[in-house]
Amino acid sequence: MSLEATIAIQAVREAGTILKDGFLFGSHEVTQKEDHSPVTDMDYQSSEMICSTLQKTFPSHTILSEESPNALKRTIGNEPTWIIDPLDGTSNFVSHIPLFAITIALVIDQNPVVGVIYDPLHDDLFFAEVGKGAELNGKRMCVSKQTHTKGAMLFAGRGYRDRDKERHGQIIYALEKQTTYFRRLGTAAVMLSCVASGRADSVILTGNNPWDVVAGALLTREAGGRVTDYCGKEWTLESGDMVATNGLIHDEIIKITQEQIASC
Questions:
Q1: Which residues of the sequence carry a binding annotation for Mg(2+) (predicted)?
Q2: How far is CA 249 from CA 36, 47, 127, 189, 213, in A?
Q3: Once rounded to an integer, what is the mean pLDDT over residues 87-104?
Q4: pLDDT average, residue stretch 69-81
């Protein structure tokens, strides 16, 4: 395991302790950011812990947390960049719904090379390094073997912007006429980790930000799955939407999403 992976895992575990204690014993005031997404003191405390841990070991690396100033306006360059969501699933957290996670990804030349997702309540640690496969709690994991969307476990999620709502509603309506019902868990990180570990078969995500999905994209690919945009093009940091699957049902889903996107 690389030094980068080791420190990333250390950081999510330390931040996980903060979030677990806050979830079990705290009460939190909620405010809204400029994109209308909720944020709490726990988001900021977790972010500060992770950023501090990474900065100490990798002072020359760029760090982009969801809670960084002007995070929505920052661009990701080719230099080593840590992309962090210190609390994915804030609405669940505030409502005491036990579905949230921490995500950290290291991106070099705009390609993810390390990805970690940590669910502190269930103590599930999902980890991948590019070219080395993916693990859940230290054991190799792989995507499911489901071959059809009928009977598959399908997830969905979207961003907070009005255009995301409209676009997502259109896509979901078309998909659910031909597939199983799509479940929404309120956290992209947890849904992607479920696909990577074979607990679910696919997730579609509309308008999510890089910190929501980069680690999960790497996990899914390293576990044997496939990750594209709605048009079937390989997902990149510039992609606005994501389809992550076990690979076996990917074309079946993409055939439907392509019909809904005029630009395809």
A1: 66, 85, 87-88, 212
A2: 34, 36, 24, 20, 20
A3: 96
A4: 83
pLDDT at 6 over 90: yes
Q: Name which of 182, 188, 184 is nearest 102 in CA terms.
A: 188
Q: Is the pLDDT of residue 72 over 70?
A: no
pLDDT tens column, 147-161? 999 899 999 998 777
Check if the beta carbon of residue 218 is closer than 8 Å to that of residue 133: no
**Model-level pTM?**
0.94
Digit-coded pLDDT (tens) for 192-224: 999 999 999 999 999 889 999 999 999 999 999
Q: Six-digit token pair at 170? A: 């259109």
Rounded to the nearest 5°, which phi and psi values hold at 73?
-100, -10
Least confident of 32-36, 134-138, 228-232: 32-36
With contact defined as beta carbons under 8 Å apart, do 114 and 106 qualify? Answer: yes
Q: Residue for token digits 């999620």?
A: 157
Residue 214 pLDDT? 97
Residue type, 45: Q
Amino acid symbol at 138: G
DSSP 3-state assignment of 5? helix
Binding residues for Mg(2+): 66, 85, 87-88, 212
Residue 160 amino acid letter: Y
Pairing assessment for the beta strands 154-158 and 202-206 based on DSSP bridges: parallel
Residue keyed to tokens 């020359």: 60
Q: Which amino acids are annotated as binding site, given as ranges? A: 66, 85, 87-88, 212
DSSP assigned state of 234: B
Which domains does the chain carry?
3-140 (3.30.540.10), 154-260 (3.40.190.80)
> Which residue type does 238 have?
E
Q: How do 202-206 and 241-245 pair as beta strands?
A: antiparallel
